[in-house]
Amino acid sequence: MKTMLIPTDFSPAANNAAHYAFQLGKSIKASLKLCYAVTLPVEASMGQQVAWPLMDYSSLQKEGKEELRKLSVELETKNSSVVPDAIEQPPVHYTAEIGTLTEVVKQQLNKEKANMVVMGTSGAGALSRFFLGSSSRELMDHADFPILLVPPGAEFQGIKKIAFATDLSGGDIELIHSLSLFARLFNAEILIVHVSPAGFDSDVHQDKIDAFLNEVTCKVNYPKIYYRHVKDMGVDEGLNWLTQHVAIDLLAMVHRRHHFMQRIFEGSRTKKMAGHLKLPLLIFPSESPIFL
Q: Which residues lie below 8 Å from residue 219, measured CB to CB, with a gap of 6+?
């Protein structure tokens, strides 16, 4: 049984991500583990100088577990009407633990042997606070697991086409192989997308593309893989164009430190892209294990 981990802060965006994860879990026969990190007062400016009584932590942990229980009941109740009798509903478990977001997520991933983390985004041109605070940046920078970001209002309606953004790095081959195992569960197409700026050398560039695609053909045993070159655009501009003009259900990208993903998640151009992105975003670490 596969397991997906859903960190939550009980916000509408996080609840929406949990509902998306429930439907996704149903489709791939995965169980869900909701988790809440009791992090106060770590994020407070004077947090390290304050000694909070253990009783206060225990109270927050108890309250968190009660909210998780309510959310698990909501997921099972609201989704029961859309789950056919022939399809078993995915089990929903939950836990509230004391620690930072990174500590709690990694602890639960190891405990549950979870395959993916699913989180919500806040919209309005910005990523959720999970990906704005220092704790969330730490989680993404140290993640050796895939993270699926679900934007507000996104509803799971199956997955027919997945776009994978690449800079043609050799390490992406293994990630495409891993992604193909996920795509196979839906019989979905994988569209390999490369965005190149104006002024690139077309001859040299084409040789690199041909070598990359030949390696994909040799190493990834999945017939429904296609390629699209988006020319004369920046990365964020090109991916925005793609999501607006091509019918895709999921965008997958690689997070590399000091690489183009850093530009995606930092700076004003990032907020512009995040504001326009209306579909789920699957983030791979640069070296990711096969996750399904």
A: 173, 174, 177
